[in-house]
Amino acid sequence: MAFEGLSDRLQQSIQKIKGKGKVSEQDVKEMSREVRLALLEADVNFKVVKDFVKKIRERAVGQEVMGSLTPGQQVIKIVKEELTYLMGEEESKIAVAKRPPTVIMMVGLQGAGKTTTTGKLANLLRKSYNRKPLLAAADIYRPAAIQQLETLGRQLDMPVHSQGTEADPVDIAKQAVEQAKEEHHDYVIIDTAGRLHVDGELMGELQRIKEAVVPDEIFLVVDAMTGQDAVNVAESFDDQLDITGVLLTKLDGDTRGGAALSIKAVTGKPIKFAGMGEKLDQLEPFHPERMASRILG
Ligand code: GDP
Q1: ipTM of this complex > 0.95?
Q2: Most buried residue among 47, 118, 216, 288 by CB atoms closer than 10 A?
């Protein structure tokens, strides 16, 4: 289960302070030292950890009994608030274009879960928001990507715009949007190509698609299991494409959680959804507050 280690460590860190009727500066110092180690062990970005601990210290020192909370409980409340803030505060919404269709461009490295997540997102849009998406297969390089999306389309009973592997991805994306207009789809989700690493050629193609269809959302799909790498990937995609949100996959695995806790702080872009398994219904809106509560127990 994701965050297990982090959750255990953080709960231990706050355990001592929990029952305190009076919190000294020394107590806060001890607690924040342990919180710092817990976060670093969970692979949270170094600078993010530094800022986080500093904020907690500033806010936690000198807590007095207020209302029904003891000073110890108040300190824990502060940790929870800051953890929530770190992950993005409120639940993120999905854009709705003024004039349909809303265009969503899915980007990310190969293996991150882009194609699967394209299917999951389409499923969620239909189930939870009553939308009628069209999928577009613009990953012409990975041999099985188009077939994979077509299979997902059949499973979901949803149309897929595809032109095989010979067409230009920019044309595929543009014509998918045209098809959506003609057939009254309110969303188009474009599955684009990925590579094993960030490279200039890939970014160039993604930028051309972006210019051609002017997407309402550019969602970066990142694998939570890749830790710090996920954060670096998010930074470079954001630099080049100005992404609008992150979809974090494989949060059902035993990820240490560093990516989930660093991406918002490092890129300023929110995590919008989290993949919790391979099945098509295993994509959930990312709720920072619920996640913080889960982590702190
Ligand atoms: P792409 O190359 O980015 O398009 O990646 P795929 O969509 O083909 O996914 C790569 C692998 O990750 C597949 O085996 C997926 O089933 C798996 N995968 C995707 N999302 C999740 C997730 O949230 N949890 C788990 N456990 N596996 C996932």
Answers
A1: yes
A2: 118
